[in-house]
Design a protein that fits this description.
The protein is of the alpha/beta class. The chain is 36% helix and 12% strand. It has one domain: Rossmann fold, CATH 3.40.50.300. It is built from nine helices and nine strands. It has a four-stranded parallel β-sheet. It is globular and about 60 Å long. The relative contact order is 0.15.
Length: 268
């Protein structure tokens, strides 16, 4: 634990306010992209006991580059450097790609073995469409339509990602939230989140307009034809079926074609 100094992260120095402490993160959001994670992270940070040091972003992306096996335990202190907070406060981050990247869960376990993990799951077809919208409207992304479609599909294969996460962390350290439930009753799901993090859940009742989503799409959304939706529904069906067995509390009635049943079979 360090106070009143410069905390060194992977890209340089981050100022630590006087009296703040650098410690292991209390929570880490690990997934999933285009599922309301920026909105939910902002709501978590609206709690008076949750803090973010100046210059530290929502998404630290610390583990991205270690796909090549270059990780050593010397990196652990550098990761912790992003999580300064006042005494008694909590700090964390939310990098949605951590759940997709197969090498991250075991490294995260080494760096933050006691951290509480958060993930938001969204109807995989709607998540696919939202991801496609982002790709189509960011000209700096050099993905081909084929690469974007494949990448978007793999990000929606939640069962594999969740099982990898549970291999590294006990299930009781992982809170799975359903985006659609958060939209329908944000205060209830936020109270559930605060309780999981060891925070006073009553703070959720005092927030103004928690339903106002951050980082909402402001561009023309990608359209999917009925044929495209049907193909995606059939392609995602085995994963959704597996996921419903892993998470019996999942409300499939909120996920389009999977309401009440899982579409089975291959392509039409």
């Amino acid at each position: 634990m360090t106070t009143g100094r410069k905390a060194i992260d992977r890209d340089g120095a981050t100022a630590v306010p006087a009296g703040w402490q650098v410690r292991v993160p209390d929570f880490v959001g690990v997934g999933t992209a285009r599922s309301g994670t920026t909105w939910w992270d902002e709501l978590i940070h609206a709690h008076p006991d949750v803090h973010r040091a100046p210059g530290v972003p929502k998404e630290v992306h610390f583990f991205d580059r270690f796909w090549d096996g270059s990780w050593t335990d010397a990196e652990i202190e550098r990761y912790h450097a992003s999580f300064a907070r006042p005494a008694g406060g909590l700090a964390g981050e939310w990098t949605p790609g951590y759940m997709v990247d197969f090498w991250v869960p075991p490294l995260l376990r080494r760096a933050a073995p006691e951290a509480r993990l958060l993930l938001l799951l969204r109807d995989p077809i709607e998540r696919f469409r939202s991801g496609l919208t982002l790709t189509e409207n960011r000209l700096t992304l050099s993905w081909t339509p084929r690469a974007a479609a494949n990448g978007g599909f793999q990000r929606g294969c939640y069962a594999d990602q969740l099982e990898r996460l549970w291999q590294a962390f006990p299930r009781e350290q992982v809170l799975v939230l359903q985006y659609e439930r958060c939209v329908l009753d944000p205060r209830a799901e936020l109270r559930r989140t605060f309780t999981f993090l060891g925070l006073d859940p009553a703070a959720a009742d005092g927030l103004t307009a928690p339903e106002r989503r951050i980082n909402a799409t402001r561009v023309t959304k990608a359209a999917l034809s009925e044929e495209q939706r049907d193909r995606l529904a059939r392609a995602f069906a085995p994963e959704v079926e597996r996921l419903s067995r892993l998470l019996p509390e999942l409300d499939l009635s909120l996920w389009g074609p999977y309401g009440g049943r899982v579409v089975v079979g291959g392509e039409p």
